[in-house]
């Protein structure tokens, strides 16, 4: 009897369990096969895939590599090896694995697609676009390849081509929520608010759907709220909550407003008199008639460029702050800085920067610098050797009320696109916001001001990854500003 033939039905059984999502039993059966035939490349590969799906990437790489050593003719082995390397951030190794898969099978659309992903993560946008286009050439109905092509083209500043690619993804797959959502951000970036806000609602079926809250009471659709109550709840990041809490002022005086916010914002938002009840995670929510996620308010109110609510300030921190400035000279310009946002943000690679970029500002006469940076990055001050030049306020902050109270005592804030910039803008404090080549949708394009924050000036990259030119422009502007 041929043991290899005996193994085939067992492997098929394991595959069935695997496809049904029963990974533990699938692994057990794969291991059983390997007990019979330790050199079975398919079993080694599939066991590697199953542990990959359990996020055990080192083990997956080891197993798939063993499979390749036994049988190096199967492109799928190399593709899954590349996927495991990509999860580990070993992008060059993942590129090599995908290229080997393509060498074996030149019409392998998935390998080109994954190669495009790896190139995109490396910042090799032109090469990523070429890989996606090759995948599409092989498989013209590849909606995901059109989607990622659209994202790559957007990062390159090719907005028309990006829009066309995303529209093609939606044409192929009309319920492709992430493609609709990314189209929304492209439209908003270009100031097309009406269609942009409408498509932005697709986020609840996209990769952000886990943030959706399900209530028995109806979602507010703009109907009269006179003598009614509404729950407005936070979603996404701190910056979104700070930016859109301004809409509270648009509700009728007879409406009872309940706001559910992030814990870090509670002590700051409770000073907004128009909010009747403020709750945060773990606290009971009073009864309400309607609810609305906070970033849906611009859509419901039908906001266009000319009707953005820009009554500033709309946040009111305690002016009697515990954060006293030990200034060497009261005539000096007090400048707050922030250089990094949340590392989990989808675009953090482009928006956060090294503190060393600020070096060209630190010798400007008549300026004192204060860090508003929170989290692990406040340690950058010591690591960069700036402890005597930059006063670290951020290490004292435990919530945004602390940050806001400190900002009130400053003359100027210079920040990357993070919550600090929103906070300074909402307080009406002069703030210079540093933007990557293609910024977040809310900052739009080709303008140095923000319709959301009248006190904000936008400093934009003119070339991808070129922060040097941005800081040279800021240096000249700050020299002039400090001499006023």
TrEMBL record:
Signal peptide per UniProt: none
InterPro entries associated with the record: Glyco_trans_9 (IPR002201), TMTC_O-mannosyl-trnsfr (IPR052943), TPR-like_helical_dom_sf (IPR011990), TPR_rpt (IPR019734)
Entry GO MF terms: glycosyltransferase activity
Database matches in Pfam families: Glyco_transf_9, TPR_11
Protein's UniProt name: Uncharacterized protein
């Amino acid at each position: 009897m041929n043991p290899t033939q005996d193994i085939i039905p067992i492997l098929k059984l394991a595959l069935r369990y695997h496809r049904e999502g029963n990974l533990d039993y699938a692994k057990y059966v794969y291991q059983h096969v390997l007990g019979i035939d330790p050199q079975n490349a398919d079993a080694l590969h599939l066991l590697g895939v199953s542990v990959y799906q359990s996020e055990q990437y080192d083990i997956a790489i080891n197993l798939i590599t063993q499979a390749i050593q036994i049988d190096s003719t199967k492109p799928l082995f190399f593709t899954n090896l590349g996927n495991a390397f990509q999860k580990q951030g070993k992008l060059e190794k993942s590129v090599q694995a995908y290229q080997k898969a393509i060498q074996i099978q030149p019409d392998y659309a998935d390998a080109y697609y994954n190669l495009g992903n790896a190139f995109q993560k490396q910042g090799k946008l032109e090469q990523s676009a070429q890989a996606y286009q090759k995948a599409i050439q092989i498989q013209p109905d590849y909606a995901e390849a059109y989607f990622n092509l659209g994202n790559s083209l957007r990062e390159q500043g090719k907005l028309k081509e990006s829009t066309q690619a995303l529209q093609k993804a939606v044409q192929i797959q009309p319920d492709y929520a992430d493609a609709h959502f990314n189209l929304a951000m492209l439209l908003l970036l270009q100031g097309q608010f009406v269609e942009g806000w409408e498509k932005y609602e697709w986020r609840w079926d996209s990769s952000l759907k886990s943030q959706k809250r399900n209530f028995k009471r109806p979602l507010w659709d703009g109907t009269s709220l006179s003598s009614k109550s509404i729950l407005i709840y936070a979603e996404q990041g701190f910056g979104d909550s700070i930016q859109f809490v301004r809409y509270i002022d648009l509700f009728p005086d007879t409406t009872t407003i309940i706001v559910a916010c992030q814990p870090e914002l509670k002590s700051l938002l409770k000073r907004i008199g128009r909010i009747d009840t403020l709750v945060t995670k773990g606290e009971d929510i009073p009864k309400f008639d309607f609810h609305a996620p906070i970033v849906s308010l611009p859509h419901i109110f039908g906001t266009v460029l000319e009707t953005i609510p820009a009554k500033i300030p709309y946040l009111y921190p305690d002016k009697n702050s515990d954060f006293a400035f030990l200034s060497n000279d009261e005539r000096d310009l007090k400048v707050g800085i922030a250089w990094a946002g949340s590392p989990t943000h989808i675009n953090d690679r482009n928006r956060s920067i090294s503190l060393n970029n600020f070096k060209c500002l630190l010798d400007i006469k008549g300026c004192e610098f204060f860090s508003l940076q929170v989290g692990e990055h406040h340690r950058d001050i010591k690591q960069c050797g700036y402890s005597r030049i930059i006063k670290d306020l951020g290490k004292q902050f435990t919530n945004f009320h602390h940050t806001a109270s400190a900002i009130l005592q400053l003359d100027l804030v210079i920040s990357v696109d993070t919550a600090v910039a929103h906070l300074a803008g909402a307080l009406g404090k002069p703030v210079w916001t540093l933007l990557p080549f293609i910024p977040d949708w809310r900052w739009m394009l080709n303008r140095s001001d923000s319709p959301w924050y009248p006190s904000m000036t936008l400093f934009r990259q003119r070339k991808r990854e070129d922060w040097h030119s941005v800081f040279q422009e800021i240096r000249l502007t700050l020299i002039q500003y400090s001499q006023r």
